[in-house]
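In this supplementary section we document a worked example of the pipeline. Step one takes a protein sequence of length 635 as its only input; no multiple sequence alignment statistics are reported here. Step two produces a three-dimensional model, which step three serialises into C-alpha cells for compact storage. The input and output of this example are shown verbatim.
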Amino acid sequence: MPQSSNIDDTLMRRGMSNLSLSSSKTMSTHSSFQRSSFHITIPAESFSLSMVEESIRNAESIISKWGFDSPSINKVTSLFHCHNREEAKVFLQTVKGLRQSMHLLLSEHSASHKLVTAQNLMQVAMKRLEKELYQILSAYRDQLDPESVSGRLSGGSSNGSSSFEGEDEIVFEEESKISGNRNTKSEKFKGVALSDLKAIVDCMISCGYGEECVKIYKVVRKSVLDEGLYLLEIEQFRSSKIQKKNWEDLECMINNWVHAVNIALKTLFNAEKILSDHVFSASQRIRECCFFEITKEGAMNLLKFPELVAKSKKLPERIFPLMELYEALFDHMPDIELIFSSESTLSVKLQAHSSLVRLGESVRSILSEFESTIHKDSSKTPVRGGGIHPLTRTVMSYISSLADYSTVLSNILTDSPSQCRTQLPESYFDSPTSEDNDLTPAVSLHLAWLILVLLCKVDKKSEIYKDVSLSYLFLVNNLHFIVNKVCSTRLKVLLGQDWVIKHANKVKQYALNYETHAWNKVISTLPVRTSEELSVEVAKSCFQRFNAAFEEAYRKQTSWIVGDRKLRDDLKVSIEKKIVTAYREFYDIYLVKMSGARNLEGLVRICPDDLENYLSDLFHGDSFSSTGSTCPSPR
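The serialised model returned by step three reads:
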C-alpha cells in the first residue's frame, strides 16, 4: 500500500475537469495527474497498450452504468445497497484498475487520447462515490451513534482497520461474518456501513479525491456532533450572556455542564475520534485535521464555559459551584489529553488548561475575600446572654462545607503561595495529624488558618461585654461550637485529633475562668472547713452574706445562655459541686445550732435542695426560671 505521505499529496487540487481530446489538454491531464497520483514503475517489456485500452473500455462499461447521465434507475439507487454488494465490489476494483491504467499511460503513452477517457471515467466514478459516501453517512447518522462506534472500533488496532483489509484487496464479507456474534439486524447493518465508509474513503483518497471526500464527511459528522451537544443542552456560550445571567440560572447551567461534559468527552468526542481514525486510517494528517475540523467549534465552546463562569462576580457562596466545575474539568483532563492528542488540536487542550487555571484563581480569590470579610467584621452589638455569635455560625458553616471539597481544594491550593501568618503563632500551623495520607497539608493549613482568624475575631468580640464572667461564657459557647463543628464534619480529619484536644482544653479553661469570676464571691461567703466551730453570730453572718451573693449572681445570670445541652449540664454539675456541696455541709451543721434564733426563715432563706433547683434553671436565656420560681428575697 502507498505511503501516507503520497496519499497526503492527493489532497492537491487536480484541475483535470472538462478535458478534450486535444493534445494540449492531454498534456494538461498528464501534468495534473502526476501531481495527484502515485508513481508506479512498470518494466517496459511488461507494458501493453492494447491491454491498457481494453482495461479502460471494460471500466467504461461498469462505471458509466452508475454515472449520473445514465438513463437507468442506478442514478437513484445506492451502489452499496445490500442487493448490489457484489457489484459494489466490482466497481471499487474497477476504479482501482482504472487508476493503475492511468499510471501506465502516463509512464509510457502520455499523449494517448485514452488518458482523457480514463480521466473522464475517473470523475464519473468519484461523483458516484461522493454520493454513496454522503448517502451512507446520512442514512446511518443515527445508527453510527457514539456507543456503537466506540464499542465496535475502540478495541481494534490504532490504524482503524476494518473488514476491508488493505487497498489491494477489498473484501466484502457477508453480513453474518461482519456482525460476528452480534445477533441483531441493526448491528449487522452498522458493521456493513463502517466497512463501506472505509472502502469508499480509501478509494477516493488513493485516486486523489481526498478533499472532496473530507468535505462531505465533515459536513455530515459535524451535524451529528452538534446535534448531540444540543441534546445535552450545551448552548453557544458567550461572555456577555454569561455575565448577564442571574446566579440561579447560571448555577443550573453549571450543574448541567458538569453532567454533560462527561458524556460529551467520553461518548461524543471520543467516538468521533475513533470513527475518524478508522475511516481515514490511510492518512494520519487527514484524519487528524478532519477530526479537528469536526470537533473544534463544539469542543472549544464546551471547554471555555468554566473560564467564562470564573470571570463572573466573586461571592463566597459561589465558590462551591466553581469547585464542582474545577473538579469535573480536572477529572476529565486525561480524557482531553488523550482525545485531543494531535498537534492540530492543541488549541482545545490549551482552552481546557486555561479554564482550569482561571477557575483555580477565582476560587483562591474568593477564599481571600472571605478571610478579609472575617477581618473586617466590625459589629459591636453583644450577643444576648453570651450566646453564639452569628459570625461564628456563618464562618464555621462555610469552612465545614469547604472541607467537603478538600480533594479539589488540595489541587487548587497546593501550588498557591501560603497566606501571611506573621501576626499569629507559627506553632499553630504545625502539620495536623490526619489519617488520610492522600490529602496535602495545604488544605488543612488553609482551613486551620481561617478558623484561627475567626477565633481571634471572637476573642476580640468577647471584650465588648463589661462583665468578665459573661465574656468568658461567650468564649466558652463560641469555642465549644467551633470544636463541635470540627468534630462532626470532615474538618476533624483535616485538622487532626491534636487540634481537637488542644481546643477542647481551651474550652475547659474558659469554663473554669467563667466559674471563678461568676461564683467565687458566692463560694467565698461560706467558711473554709476547719476543726473549729463558728459561733452562732458568725454563722448568721455567713448565711446573710451567702443569700445576698447568691441572689446577685443568680439574678444576673438568669438571662445568660448556653445553647448546647451537654455543655449546659456539664457547667451546672461543676457549679453544683463547688457551691451546693459546701453549702449543704454548712447548712446541715449550723441550722440546728440556730434553731432558736429569731427570724430564722429570714436568715436561712435557701435550703440545699432549693439551691439545686435554682442552679438547674440557669443558662436557658430566660429572665425567669423554667419552673416559674425566682430567687428568694429578704422578708
